[in-house]
Design a protein that fits this description.
five-stranded parallel beta sheet; alpha/beta; 52% helix; 10% strand
Length: 596
């Protein structure tokens, strides 16, 4: 665990700090020893476990006064454990595992504090840390498809989690808005009518259907040699700053931007566009700097960076003088470090680009760009690769005609299915359909189901896209969890008590085993945040959310809430669970529902 990401409200981190002190006291000659704290392997014996004894015994073996057995190490650690109000009981198991039980009053107070002061106070503290997240990155003149879904929602969740922890996050959309394809597109536009592009760089109707424009231009580029020559000449005019051609390019970009934004609005995603064209003026200087520093060299007419351990070079300038993705990405990484003052750079792209980014990061290090700027520490840089979206047949997810699945169609279908399901359930229950309420519920459930079905998988795995699976009312789905939250909200609502006022006057009691189990899992939200950031893995949050719901269900089966002697305490426990669920929903970009 990166210590900078340890949360002040994480029980695991707090226990680790106690054992750090114990290690320093008992074994001062081993200053680099880190405590190993895990959930207890058997909940009958404890809540957490410290597993350092055997490892320490091996290191101390043969030294003067060495312990005779791992249990002696464990006992020494327990003797050196500082006084605290967190751990109420300890025991030894096996060769030297230290089992720990958390104090019930401590848990009760922690939950009361979560209710009164919010969840954020217990999250990792990243206030002021400048984080730059590169995600989504569709290509201009092409529609966003299911492949863009993963980058968009994984990146958005990482951003939301960093922001929740107080980081200063710059969300960047590195769109493909420059390159040879624009010569092809603009040349085709210029030949749509006798007068050509005209002074305004074409007309709005020329770009009303960008996919049709792209397909038509690509077909001609592949088949017509004369058109290919004219398209390449058009690229030269664009790169040279021709006013009319630039206006045509801007018209294409504006049309794409409008379509992208409509999808981002539906997904509730905020991102700042900074496409490839932004870095275009910097490329010549970047290549010159790399060459002057001896990082790049000529090879068969191209300017290349040869990275140790890689079988292919990073080409920063082609033999014909042109620039490609590597040139732009080198300019981008330098700009993000020096101009944007990035302290943590995160790139969310498919796993197929892993080698490319490994080489970009290595080249940046060779150039000295990663050694820290203005007295700041060297930036942390992470590539966040993700796997493919597959169809139910296990093959790459495509339409019946073999085309990639358009993201807009995917969202439409998910929402339509939710609309039908909710309408049917309301009809069965005799509820009068309010169309505005139905629209809000089906949007939240449909879009939430699509997001959650992706995020619950580890990002590096391929996953099968199935509407039936993601909209299932049972199991680890957004639909199930949204219903679970609505049920808890209904319990609190039915009780008719002011839970905020209740929280200031009522202590939470944890006498029933299921109350205790729920409370112990509830306060593990900071640990889920730690793991999600340390691994840049949103599934750590979905795992927490689903398990919290399961613990609540087990509690609700055995512990009556309304009308019980413990009603006030249990209502507060219900409200705390609902608040934790809402917080995680927010990080996942899922809108909670209070009534369905």
């Amino acid at each position: 665990m990166n210590k900078a990401l340890m949360a002040p409200g994480s029980l695991r981190s707090q226990i680790a700090e106690l054992f750090s002190q114990a290690l320093a006291t008992a074994y001062p000659n081993l200053p680099d020893e880190e405590p190993i704290i895990t959930p207890c392997s058997n909940i009958k014996f404890g809540d957490y476990q410290c597993n350092n004894a055997m490892q320490l015994f091996g290191k101390l073996k043969g030294t003067p006064g060495a312990p005779k057995a791992p249990r002696d190490v464990a006992n020494a650690l327990l003797a050196a454990l500082p006084p605290n109000d967190l751990i109420v009981e300890t025991s030894l198991a096996g060769p030297g595992f230290i089992n720990l039980k958390v104090s019930r009053p401590f848990l009760s107070k922690r939950i009361s504090d979560m209710l009164s002061g919010g969840m954020q106070q217990f999250a990792p503290q990243l206030a002021g840390k400048r984080c730059i997240v590169d995600f989504s990155s569709p290509n201009v003149a092409k529609e966003m498809h299911v492949g863009h879904l993963r980058s968009t929602i994984i990146g958005d969740t990482i951003c939301k989690t960093l922001e929740f922890c107080g980081a200063d996050v710059l969300r960047l959309n590195h769109i493909g808005d420059w390159g040879t394809q624009f010569g092809m597109l603009i040349q085709h536009m210029s030949e749509l009518r006798p007068e050509g592009l005209g002074e305004e760089g074409g007309k709005d109707e020329d770009v009303s259907d960008l996919m049709q424009l792209y397909r038509a231009a690509k077909a001609r580029f592949d088949l017509e040699e004369d058109f290919k020559i004219r398209a390449r000449e058009m690229v030269t005019r664009l790169q040279g700053g021709d006013v009319t051609v630039t206006r045509a390019w801007q018209r294409i970009c504006a049309s794409s931007r409008k379509e992208f934004q409509a999808l981002y609005d539906r997904l509730g995603v905020t991102v700042q566009e900074r496409g490839e064209s932004f870095y275009n003026p910097m490329l010549k200087d970047i290549v010159k700097e790399l060459t002057d520093k001896g990082v790049a060299q000529l090879s068969e007419g191209a300017t290349c960076v040869f990275v140790e351990g890689q079988t292919v070079p990073l080409i920063v300038q082609k033999s014909d003088g042109g620039f490609g993705y590597a040139s732009t990405d080198m300019a981008a990484i330098k700009h993000r470090i020096y101009n944007e003052k990035g302290e943590w750079l995160i790139y969310v792209t498919d796993a197929g680009q892993s080698q490319h980014f490994d080489m970009i990061y290595a080249a940046g290090r060779m150039a000295g760009w990663r050694e820290g700027v203005d007295g700041r520490l060297a930036p942390r840089i992470d590539h966040v690769p993700f796997g493919l979206v597959l169809g139910e047949d296990g093959k790459k997810f495509k339409t019946r005609s073999g085309d990639v699945v358009r993201l807009v169609e995917l969202l439409d279908e998910a929402k339509a299915r939710c609309t039908a399901n909710i309408r049917e359930r309301w009809a069965e229950g005799g509820k009068v359909v309010d169309e505005a309420e139905l629209e809000a519920a089906s949007s939240a459930m449909g879009y939430g189901a699509v997001k959650y079905a992706d995020l619950k998988n580890h990002r590096q795995t391929n996953y099968k896209f199935s509407y039936d699976a993601m909209l299932d009312l049972k199991g680890n789905t957004a639909v199930y969890l949204l219903y679970a939250h609505a049920r808890i909200a209904g319990i609190v609502r039915k009780a008719g008590q002011d839970v905020d006022a209740l929280a200031s006057t009522t202590s939470i009691t944890l006498d029933h085993p299921k109350e205790l189990a729920l409370a112990l899992y509830l306060v593990k939200l900071p640990e889920a945040l730690e793991d999600a950031l340390d691994e840049l893995a949103p599934n750590r949050l979905t795992d927490y959310l689903y398990e919290l719901s399961e613990h609540f269900n087990a509690f609700y089966v055995d512990c009556k809430v309304i009308g019980s002697e413990q009603e006030s305490s249990r209502l507060l426990l219900c409200e705390a669970v609902a608040k934790a669920m809402r917080q995680v929903f927010s990080l996942l970009g899922v809108t909670p529902l209070y009534r369905i």
